[in-house]
């Protein structure tokens, strides 16, 4: 039976709109904010207002299934939008108001009442701490129930948009003695007393996006701000929080796919300007070495793209996609780093200088193989799923 890999035409308008943002808003100021780290990109203000106004409408439209047994919904739209804006600039994509990684966390875990209550927030996501990186189960930030509030204490690092978002989704433990089952996520307004931005990091890439250190000192939030169930279930408690990654990892993969496409287009133009035609009817080995390498990189990019839309489609159709989400993130993260670095190498002086954006894209690409779980973590998750092993069995 033939497989139709074309996306539904109803998504065309959203894709075209997102591409226009990447082309006409992001790309022209991409170098500007690469050289002006920590400056707020004011060009996104109007875009943020439009997103806030249309968010509810888009969610309603995305929830309506296509004709037939399957549907493309909010996850697919999010992946496609992210791909197109990341083609323009990844750092600016991460800076779009009301479109933070914490919003994806809320969408993944919140109940219906919380989804409505937090519909208009801009939420960053705070997981990593000074004492751990990839081991999300090592959360030491605490949340203690005191009357009708949870009191949160701890420090979070590498919080994307942490100083710009108006809310932050914080991972904290209800009881450290219980282990990972007690880890829950909380929606915390940034103007809560006891929440402070300790500092902003200086980074290799995605400089248009701020990366903050946040401190929580007796920060009180209503108990209704705990996402999901407050019950500690040793079998599935942590799994509920981890569903966040099933939504966000395909989005990060989409960032890599968008950035990779930008680099491929630039490299193709450079090769053709040098007189090297890319001929798909001839064996790669029979063509110029740079063309042969381009074809390899492009095929790797195609695989990343297909894995990404598969993971998003499964999420929209309520199919367990943890394995596929990790596959898309692992493949796209590794491929975009290979692609952008090789593009810099092939382009020679044009790739290493600031005459084009290739060197910037190579720097931006590195984070896409790190945050939301490193390459090694993704491979570990995939191996556990395929082999039927638990985290205790396979470390």
TrEMBL record:
<dbReference type="Pfam" id="PF00441">
    <property type="entry name" value="Acyl-CoA_dh_1"/>
</dbReference>
<dbReference type="InterPro" id="IPR046373">
    <property type="entry name" value="Acyl-CoA_Oxase/DH_mid-dom_sf"/>
</dbReference>
<dbReference type="InterPro" id="IPR036250">
    <property type="entry name" value="AcylCo_DH-like_C"/>
</dbReference>
<dbReference type="GO" id="GO:0003995">
    <property type="term" value="F:acyl-CoA dehydrogenase activity"/>
</dbReference>
<dbReference type="InterPro" id="IPR009100">
    <property type="entry name" value="AcylCoA_DH/oxidase_NM_dom_sf"/>
</dbReference>
<keyword id="KW-0274">FAD</keyword>
<protein>
    <submittedName>
        <fullName>Putative acyl-CoA dehydrogenase</fullName>
    </submittedName>
</protein>
<dbReference type="GO" id="GO:0033539">
    <property type="term" value="P:fatty acid beta-oxidation using acyl-CoA dehydrogenase"/>
</dbReference>
<dbReference type="InterPro" id="IPR050741">
    <property type="entry name" value="Acyl-CoA_dehydrogenase"/>
</dbReference>
<keyword id="KW-0560">Oxidoreductase</keyword>
<feature type="domain" description="Acyl-CoA oxidase/dehydrogenase middle">
    <location>
        <begin position="124"/>
        <end position="218"/>
    </location>
</feature>
<keyword id="KW-0285">Flavoprotein</keyword>
<comment type="similarity">
    <text>Belongs to the acyl-CoA dehydrogenase family.</text>
</comment>
<feature type="region of interest" description="Disordered">
    <location>
        <begin position="32"/>
        <end position="73"/>
    </location>
</feature>
<feature type="domain" description="Acyl-CoA dehydrogenase/oxidase C-terminal">
    <location>
        <begin position="236"/>
        <end position="387"/>
    </location>
</feature>
<feature type="compositionally biased region" description="Basic and acidic residues">
    <location>
        <begin position="32"/>
        <end position="69"/>
    </location>
</feature>
<dbReference type="InterPro" id="IPR006091">
    <property type="entry name" value="Acyl-CoA_Oxase/DH_mid-dom"/>
</dbReference>
<dbReference type="InterPro" id="IPR009075">
    <property type="entry name" value="AcylCo_DH/oxidase_C"/>
</dbReference>
<dbReference type="GO" id="GO:0005737">
    <property type="term" value="C:cytoplasm"/>
</dbReference>
<dbReference type="Pfam" id="PF02770">
    <property type="entry name" value="Acyl-CoA_dh_M"/>
</dbReference>
């Amino acid at each position: 039976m033939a497989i139709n890999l074309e996306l539904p035409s109803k998504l065309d308008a959203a894709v075209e709109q997102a591409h226009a943002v990447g082309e006409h808003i992001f790309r022209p100021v991409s170098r500007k904010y690469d050289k002006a780290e920590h400056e707020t990109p004011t060009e996104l203000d109007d875009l943020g207002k439009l997103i806030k106004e249309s968010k509810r409408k888009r969610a309603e439209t995305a929830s309506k299934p296509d004709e037939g047994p399957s549907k493309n919904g909010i996850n697919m739209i999010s992946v496609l939008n992210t791909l197109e804006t990341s083609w323009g600039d990844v750092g600016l994509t991460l800076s779009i108001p009301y479109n933070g990684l914490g919003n994806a966390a809320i969408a993944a875990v919140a109940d219906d009442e919380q989804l409505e209550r937090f519909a208009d927030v801009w939420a960053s996501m705070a997981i990593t701490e000074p004492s751990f990186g990839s081991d999300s189960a090592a959360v030491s930030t605490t949340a203690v129930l005191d009357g009708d509030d949870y009191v949160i204490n701890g420090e979070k690092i590498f919080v994307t948009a942490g100083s710009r978002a108006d809310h932050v989704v914080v991972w904290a433990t209800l009881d450290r003695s219980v282990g990972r089952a007690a880890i829950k996520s909380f929606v915390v307004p940034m103007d809560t007393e006891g929440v402070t931005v300790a500092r902003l990091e200086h980074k290799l890439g995605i400089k248009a996006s701020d990366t903050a250190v946040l401190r929580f000192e007796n920060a009180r939030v209503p108990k209704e701000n705990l996402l999901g169930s407050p019950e500690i279930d040793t079998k599935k408690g942590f799994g509920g929080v981890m569903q966040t990654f099933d939504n966000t990892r395909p989005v990060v993969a989409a960032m890599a796919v968008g950035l990779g496409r930008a680099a491929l287009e630039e490299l193709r133009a450079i090769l053709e300007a040098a007189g090297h035609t890319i001929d798909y009817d001839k064996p790669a080995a029979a063509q110029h070495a740079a063309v042969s390498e381009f074809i390899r990189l492009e095929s790797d990019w195609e695989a990343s793209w297909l894995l990404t839309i598969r993971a998003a489609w499964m999420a929209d159709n309520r199919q367990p996609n943890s394995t596929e989400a990790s596959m898309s993130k692992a493949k796209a993260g590794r491929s975009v780093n290979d692609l952008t670095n090789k593009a810099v190498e092939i382009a020679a002086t044009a790739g290493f200088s600031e005459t084009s954006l290739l060197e910037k894209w190579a720097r931006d690409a590195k984070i896409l193989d790190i945050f939301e779980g490193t390459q090694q973590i993704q491979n570990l998750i995939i191996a556990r799923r395929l082999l039927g092993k638990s985290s205790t069995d396979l470390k």
